[in-house]
Amino acid sequence: MNFTYKTRGTCSSVIELEIEDDIIKSVYFWGGCNGNLQGLSRLVKGMKVDDVIARLEGIKCGTRSTSCPDQLCKALREFNK
C-alpha cells in the first residue's frame, strides 16, 4: 500500500511510503538533505514498521524538536492507524 505524509518542522516536505505486510518496501523524501535521506531510505527498506519506529523515534535535528527520521516515524504511526 502506498502512503503519503506531509512533514512538519523539517527541511523535507513530504514522505512517500510503500508498505506491504508491515514491511517497508520503499521510502522517498521530497526535499531535505538528499544524500542523508537516500541513505536513511535504503537502511529502512525491508525493515518492519515497528522496528523502524523503535530505532528512530524522537531523534532531533539541531535545535528543532523533530527530524526527518522522527517524521518518518510519525508517518509510520499515521499509516498504522
List the helices and strands and how they pair.
Elements: E1 2-6, E2 12-20, E3 23-31, H1 34-44, H2 49-56, H3 68-79
Antiparallel strand pairs: 1-2, 2-3
Summarize the structure in words.
The protein has 81 residues and is an alpha+beta fold. The chain has helices spanning 34-44, 49-56, 68-79, and strands spanning 2-6, 12-20, 23-31. It has a single domain (2-79), classed as Enolase-like, domain 1 (2-Layer Sandwich). It is built from three helices and three strands. α2 (49-56) runs antiparallel to α3 (68-79). The relative contact order is 0.24.
The largest sheet, given as strand count, sense and whether it forms a barrel, is:
3 strands, antiparallel
Domain module tally: 1
Cα-atom Rg, whole angstroms? Answer: 11 Å
**Number of DSSP strands?**
3
| Helix share bin | 25-40%
Number of helices: 3
CATH class: Alpha Beta
- CATH architect. name: 2-Layer Sandwich
Low-confidence stretches: none
Measured between the Cα atoms of the first and last residue, the distance is 14 Å
With strands numbered from the N-terminus, the spatial order across the biggest sheet is 1-2-3
Secondary-structure class? alpha+beta
